[in-house]
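Holo model, guanosine-5',3'-tetraphosphate. Inputs:
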Amino acid sequence: MSTLAQEVANRRTFAIISHPDAGKTTITEKVLLFGQALQKAGTVKGKKSGQHAKSDWMEMEKERGISVTTSVMQFPYADRLVNLLDTPGHEDFSEDTYRTLTAVDSCLMVIDSAKGVEERTIKLMEVTRLRDTPILTFMNKLDRDTRDPIELMDEVEEVLNIACAPITWPIGMGKGFKGVYHLLRDEVILYQSGQGHTIQEKRVVSGLDNPELDECLGSMAGDLRDEIELVKGASHEFDLEAFLAGELTPVFFGTALGNFGVDHMLDGLVEWAPTPQARDTDTRSVNPTEDGFSGFVFKIQANMDPQHRDRIAFLRIVSGKYSQGMKARHVRIGKDVRFADALTFMAGDRSHADEAYAGDIIGLHNHGTIQLGDTFTAGEDMKFTGIPNFAPELFRRIRLKDPLKAKQLQKGLVQLSEEGAVQVFRPMKNNDLIVGAVGVLQFDVVVARLKSEYKVEAVYEPINVATARWVTSDDAKALDEFKRKANDFVALDGADQLTYIAPTMVNLQLAEERYPDVKFHKTREH
Ligand code: G4P
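Output:
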């Protein structure tokens, strides 16, 4: 195998999807601990729930580095190299969270076992469906009183429409949590509380019939044997093909806080999760092992510190290899550019890499020439697809404090929308400017950046918009009629694309019924 093929075969690039407080930060800590990236878990800065004041957020961003370096974490595990992409989750939830999911090859879904499937998880799963991304599942917080595991799996199957294949099965819960039975290895792994900050030496009992099990578990051993028989009969068996098609998820039980079960999940990840995948462009599909470098930008992170006004463009390498100082074609502007000092992301104190391969992420310093969705290649003119804008869920009208600055405002908003910070809509019927976002913090970000980068002071007002859809039709006449009749709710976005801004979800539904020849899209390609 060539070096490139070997590097690609070694890599796994994934992200975590979860509802706030399910344990994403805690799992990340433990995963890095296993990756030997942290000596002792407890140093990943999590953003806690509770309101982030605006100034807090700016402070946070000012400490440049923290958010940039934790955006991507690379660590070794079991002879593999794993890339974990951060998915902002609390107030910092944004379109970037969605878009990051288009840049990974698999996802870990973390569920709070006391709560089950929660709203944010449902939304994020919907995004993973765009690419049928393979999903692993970790049922967390087994050290607490949780819901019945069978019921939890039923809920995942029903609500998220994905089959569940238990790989491990919990023995007890809460104070009585004893460990898990690994269905594939036929092993019981015993849990000890209070060891969460370390990698534990665990007691393992081989074989469900092993009399040693009765010694350790007492009467629970018999119950476990009965239960496993039942579980085996009633649940799906793990099927690699179904997993890779995004139709079945292997399920692991444990406690992130107790650092128990996270390694079982990681073992599954490196064994089953796909290696860096081929990606489509407008002309052809690109394989990761092609020699020519290529990649696309899925996120642009601005830095609020006026001293460092640069932005970082996060690029997922699709094929070939990055090396420091190399040149690549910036396809949209048709120029070759040099990657002078791209950032690479390795957790802990491992040294900075001069090379990166397909599946890895690099950070490019961006002084305004890189936009979301941009493609870089070894010279070929092609454009990666599948890095969309997502329909915003929150809307506000933006108004200037000084009306003479309308031009700057519009320019600022269009640029910020190209970066993916926010989306902007201009209704046909009036001169309003409507800002749409996926997460509420984005509104503050936009006002702060307008002020610091465009010298525009703006404020928000509420507006009656519930959702937006991009509108297209193969039938020009039908589209014209729609534009005329629905004029009050038609707008152009930052890229002059036609959108329908619906005051309520019911309006959207009615419009979809009334105009069957018009398509209403939840995402828009760049
Ligand atoms: P998030 O990133 O998904 O939002 O979740 P995070 O890891 O921050 O976890 C949310 C809370 O749940 C934290 O408690 C964390 O300690 C706790 N937690 C995570 N995993 C487990 C687990 O396996 N068992 C139990 N019992 N708790 C768990 P917190 O009180 O909000 O924060 P902290 O003050 O403890 O850090």
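The first strand starts at residue 11 and ends at 18. Residues 46-57 have pLDDT under 50 and may be disordered.
Archived with the compound record.
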